[in-house]
Structures are given as structure tokens and as C-alpha cells.
């Protein structure tokens, strides 16, 4: 199977490390989803986002001369976000503000949990 940069392929997570996840692609080749390419949010532990044997869709972002394949999950979600905003019906200002406040609140909760874990005050 020829892997081309920019293509979206299916694969299975075969291993998780502190720097990312290895994904076996259809055709038997293996690529790496670096921790920075797992999600839009800050990822401290890849295991919070992916599990071994989980089936995932990934975007091929690089193939170097040694045959190492760089993959991204995050860039697929970015593509979906752009599509959502460009093809969705226009929202009112109140709806957009409500969406923003909800997303902001969720991000604040994630930050609070992260800070609580660091300080040892896990609830």
C-alpha cells in the first residue's frame, strides 16, 4: 500500500508511549501520531485519548526518506471544524455567544482538573 501525504487512512493503535501512539495502517505499515497531533487540547497523557487496539482514522502528514510515517488525528478534527463553520447555516450572535461560553467553561474545567492533579487536590 502506497502511503501519500495528505491522505486519510484507517488504522489500529498498537502501542502508546509518553510521546505518542503507534498506529498500524491498512497494509501493515506503522506510523506515529505524535502527542502534539492527538487532540486540539493540551495532551499530558496519550492514554487519556487513545487505547491500544482502538480503531482510528488518521491523516498522513509526513513520510521521510527512512519510511517513517507521521500521522495526525488533530488535523482531521481541524478539517471537520472548518467544514462545520463554512457549511453550517448562519447562527445568530446569541447562539454563537452561547456556544463560545459553553466551550470556554469546558476548557476552564479541564484546566482546573489539571491544576488539581498537579497540586494533589484531586476530588
Automatic annotation (TrEMBL):
Q: Which GO terms describe its molecular function?
A: mRNA binding; structural constituent of ribosome
Q: Name one GO cellular component term.
A: ribonucleoprotein complex
Bias (Basic and acidic residues) ranges = 100-123
Classification via SMART domains: S1
* Gene Ontology biological process: translation
- Xref: InterPro entries: NA-bd_OB-fold, Ribos_protein_bS1-like, S1_domain
- Ranges for region Disordered: 96-123
List keywords of the entry alphabetically.
Ribonucleoprotein, Ribosomal protein
Q: Where is the S1 motif domain?
A: 6-74
PROSITE patterns, sorted: S1 (PS50126)
Which Pfam families does this entry report, sorted A to Z? S1 (PF00575)
The entry's function note states: Binds mRNA; thus facilitating recognition of the initiation point. It is needed to translate mRNA with a short Shine-Dalgarno (SD) purine-rich sequence.
Q: Which family does it belong to?
A: Belongs to the bacterial ribosomal protein bS1 family.
Could you tell me what this protein is called? S1 RNA binding domain protein
What organism is recorded for this protein? Orenia marismortui
Amino acid at each position: 500500500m502506497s502511503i501519500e501525504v495528505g491522505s486519510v487512512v484507517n488504522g489500529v493503535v498498537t502501542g502508546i508511549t509518553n510521546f505518542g501512539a503507534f498506529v498500524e495502517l491498512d497494509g501493515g505499515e506503522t506510523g506515529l501520531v505524535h502527542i502534539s497531533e492527538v487532540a486540539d487540547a493540551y495532551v499530558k497523557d496519550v492514554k487519556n485519548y487513545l487505547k491500544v487496539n482502538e480503531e482510528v482514522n488518521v491523516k498522513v502528514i509526513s513520510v521521510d526518506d527512512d519510511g517513517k510515517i507521521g500521522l495526525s488525528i488533530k488535523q482531521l478534527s481541524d478539517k471537520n471544524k472548518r467544514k462545520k463553520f463554512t457549511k453550517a447555516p448562519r447562527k445568530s450572535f446569541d447562539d454563537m455567544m452561547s456556544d463560545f461560553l459553553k466551550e470556554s467553561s469546558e476548557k476552564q474545567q479541564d484546566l482546573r482538573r489539571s491544576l488539581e492533579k498537579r497540586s494533589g487536590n484531586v476530588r
